Write the structure tokens for this entry.
Amino acid sequence: MSDLDEDTAYGNDNSPDDDSFSRDKSRQQERRNHNDSEEEEEEDDRVEDEEDEDDDDESPRKKKKRRHKKGIAERFFDLAAVSDDDDDGDDDADDDGQDGFIDDPEDGEDASRRHYGHLQNARKFDDADEQSPEQIASDLTRRYQGQNTVRYSGDMNEVPQRLLMPSVHDASLWQVRVKAGRERDLVFSLMRKALDRDSLPGMIYVEARSSAQVSQACNGLVGVYLSRGIQLVPIEEMASLLQIKKQDLTVTPGSWVRIKRGTYQGDLAQVVDITETGEYVGVKFIPRIDLNPRDDGSLEGPTGKKRKKTNLAGSTTTRPSQRLFNYEEVVGRNQVYVFQNETYKDGTGDGGESAVDLSIHRRGLPKAAISVLQPGDHVEVFEGEQSGVHGVVEEINQDVVTITAVGVEFDGQKVDLPARSVRKRFKAGDHVKVMTGQNADETGLVVSVSDNVVTFLSDMSMQEVSVFSKDLREAAEVGSGTNIVGNYELHDLVQLDPQTVGVIFKTERDSFRVLDQNTQVRLVQPHQISMRRESHRAIATDSQGHEISQARKGRVLHIHQASFVFLHNRDIVENGGVFVTRARSLVSVAPKGNLTKGPGVDLSKMNPALATPTGGMVGSGNMGRGPRDRLIGVAVTIVKGPYKGYVGSIKDTNGPIARVELHTGNKVVAVDKDKLRRRLENGKLVELEGYFSRDKGSSFSAPFSSNQNTPYTSAGPTPAGVEGAHRHGILVGHLRGTHLRGRPTHTETEKRQHGVRASKTPNPYAAGGRTPAWNANSSSSPNPYVSADSSSSTWGGATPGRPAWSAGGATPARPDWSSSPQTWGGDTWNAPTPAAATPGFIAPTPSAATPGYLSASTPAGAFALPGGSSMSAPTPGALSAPTPGASYSSYNQFQMPIEYEPPEAWLVDPAYKKYLTRIKVRVQGTRTAYPQYLDGQYEGWEASVVAATPSATQFEQTAMLTFDSGQSRPGFLVKYLLPVEPRFENQEALVLDDPKLKGMVVRLREAADGDSRRPVTVSPLKSTDVFEVMRDRLALLRAEEGSR
Amino acid sequence: MFFIKELTHTILLHPSYFGPRMLSFLESKLYADVEGTCSGQFGYIIAVVSILDIGKGMVLSGSGQAEFITRYRAIVFKPFKGEVVDGVVNNVNKMGFFADVGPLSVFVSHQLIHPDLRFDSNSNPPSFASVDQIIEKSTHVRLKIVGTRVDATEIFAIGTIKEDHLGVID
Amino acid sequence: MSSSNKFRHRSNAEEEDASALKLGAEFNNAGCLLISEVKYLLENRDKDAPDTKVYNKTLEYVKTFTKFSTTDSASAVRETLRREPALTQFETAQIANLCPATADEAKSVIPSLVKIDDDRLEALLRDIQTMRKFQS
């Protein structure tokens, strides 16, 4: 049965010449026979069964007997026999089990009938303990009386085996959990229709039509765990379940074996030789010699110096430890040392052991070689007759490989060889891959081969690696097969340094190739990666239908700081298909219909406060601060593990691990995040992740006026919508606070705090959904501008306006915004609390939000009027200016395609003073103003600035212009002047707004294309540095007089 | 070995390019697309020598793009196993040295360098030196390619100089 | 990456081996260029030189290793080698590129030349050396 395949299995089980009906009948007959306790005959049958089953010419009598063995009823006998005689093989029982289990597909009905019979039998036998054997016998006789009328009637030899496979019409097989070790007993108790597999502890299998029948059958049996469920065995697994895999263990020289019995029980040994009969094998092992045995009368050793080991006395002594035999301690004769019937050679025990006492532990190298050979491999023969021949493996059939020999003598011949006598052959220049071992998955070009050691040059590390040829395979592919090194995986977004993130596009043995946001490719070791970044909640807006400059498609892998998008496209060969681009140069390839339907983007996702680790983007994107995990600095309590109960604060996080500085002992320990709970100020513990650092928010807001703290903290438990409302209040309050303090500018750190605060702010809209990300922004974004010039209050005043438009949903609002700047120049914004905005806000968070909004905006509007000291006039223009400005700031963070509009008094900004007379301006907005400024006569004209000096804050700023037509005009209102954008390569331009370059003169490195929201590359004069600046933030300068 | 080979290249052209300057665009696109590329099949395509047939543009249904199957003749460079080539040493380290053979980089392992030539760790630049020969950066060597590996964008080869008539050349 | 279809065994395809003149289906009959010819072609391109690494390295390489500085001498070499009909394109180019001095050296660096008689080969090589020496 060693190579039992299905055919033979079923051949055995179902006598080929069996039709279902006759088989059934004959079984029953057999049952009766058994019940007549013809034990001897039974034994005979079994012997016959061991014989070839395909022998069809036997007499009907024999056949009947054979069938009888297969008969279902016979199982009972088998088991009975087992109970009588323990030497009966388990295999028999399994055979029988199979037999009873497999039915002809055709005999479903019959089977069910039979099944009930079996169940009855089973129940009957449950009671059998209480019955006398005679009673049982008579019962059975009665039961099967008259059932033997139909005998074997046909030859079904040709039934294909597959038809004997179980089908849905057959009784199902049910798995029943039982007490481990009692399977056999239970099956015996169950008597019929059940079978057990010795190899599966704690399970027996019962064949039945329904689970109810099984539970009925098993009911009352101790050790059957019906409560653990009766599981149906899928029909396709039924056959394989019942296959018996008996390993045919042949001991061959070189095999590794374990000794089963005796002193060396359990020890590992290697087979050295085998006697002809196979009864004894010579094994090599490390001996256990008791060199100081108790003197129990055993003889002295050959030399008399040392005592012999006495195995027999060893029962009371502990087993001597394994050590090599040192012949200096025991001087022997010849090469072999005989030591109390044991021979020792070269320090190892050379024991003759009975083959039955050995279990093969593992086959050595030859086996491994077989398993790795594949057709097409180049092999050479290293032992045996054909030694030295090499060729290509044609086919492998178990232990025999057929090779097509290559070489002078044998060229082209096919040679069959034992697999263990061939080994793979490589030559210099082959491209190989390591299949197993320490260097697994390494690939490289073979540099040299010596015997069975191959040295190759790794493709990845360019280092030479030596491996055994058996571990190698020729392979065309390059690179490591694994995608995971350390904790990082292919296509992970990783933090390289505070400023840089990158995407792993290639993993190598112990390093990564990372494409960073600046499209640089770096080779990094895992330890150089500070953390893995999550970006599933990061968002960025695309160019909203603007033409894409990169005609490449890709799947977005990660988004970083809402501007850098890492994409993956299998078609691109460089960098493993990973490339990085800016979000604004992307356009979604999703059908347009999807985009317009609904809000386009789920606005709740756009809230940077929600976009967890990258949530730093609001603060960081603008302020140049490296993003940090918002968990850093959080006070926590460890709730599990050895540090349970300790209080500390998080210093650093990396994936699921947080480094916690304990308050006691000033120790930093690494703890799983799930073992941490956030510790609130009142000592309450809450989940670490789910809780957005409210306490932190308040701590951040502390530097500002106190009034914001109150609504803020109290906002905690209120429903989301209301909370949102509060937040508007806070933001406005905060702005007012700064204003009231009369700070002309914010310090850089403060700005950062704003940003951080915005990003750390608990997102009240998480629940409300759909609320604009811009809100969070709105708190921070004006602030950079506040510091920019004196129009700070103007900008602050913009805030209420912002929630208004953004609340309306980003998508619909945007087109209006970007469509024409003139609209904003107009008087549409006369009202400080624009009515149009309110409904827009209502839309996303209807009920609770509205009052919140109103209360929030109203003071802000009020504030704008009295507080607007720097506003030259509370004209519509005053309001028009900030609003686009606000949109600019959001642009900066979200790459919104919204145009930048310089502040109203931009021309008199001291930063531009040096180049003032070279600035080209265009008159714009004069006609949309009411009344039209100078009758709109100059609308659209371009001019050079002759002079402009800042006037007192209460007055309009004016400038003296020379129009391109030659006309000159003093006292032109600056607010109607816009900078002219540079267009062509090499034009000089003034940077109106940029954190680094503001006020500098730059030269365009490329001709600008149509869209003024595109960045252009510029270089400062006399410098080769290249920067990217939005074109609409550049003002064209006239060529210098000298160069004309 | 350098070859002159006829190759084809498929260009997809957006309808916005259809017009009088289409041909020149196709040409420059072909040059830009193929020159300097590398494939396992053809090796490095170094330069297009001539365009044999720019192809008839077939407008693809669905996209409106036109597909031009362009035939051109190009100089290609493909290294073969067993080929002997001259190269310039580019980099020497204790594992061996890298030599440039045109666009191809060939690594010669120290195992494939004659044992007389030993790595001299003290020399600057690093070198393999014997009594009468020295291999250092920019030395010209004749080597035999023993194996190649084709990546998506480059071919890498290993070579030997451990045979007769190979090694430093004047 | 571990999918088994990645294991492309090369045994099915003809193994490329220049020493046995097996260049693969694409190149067995392709026209080989001498380094000198490549140099000429690259230097006399009517189009602008593409600024690719491959192009630049190649140009540098062919300038370094060109054996025949003029088109005349290069075509003369080709003419000379054409006298020997047994030579394949590849062998022709290899002889002209490597300019082995002796038949022994030639057969060592271009093993497929074993088919050619030593004396004939020697004569060819001598001619080529002469041409090399006296090219203007």
Summary: The beta strands of chain C are 31-33.
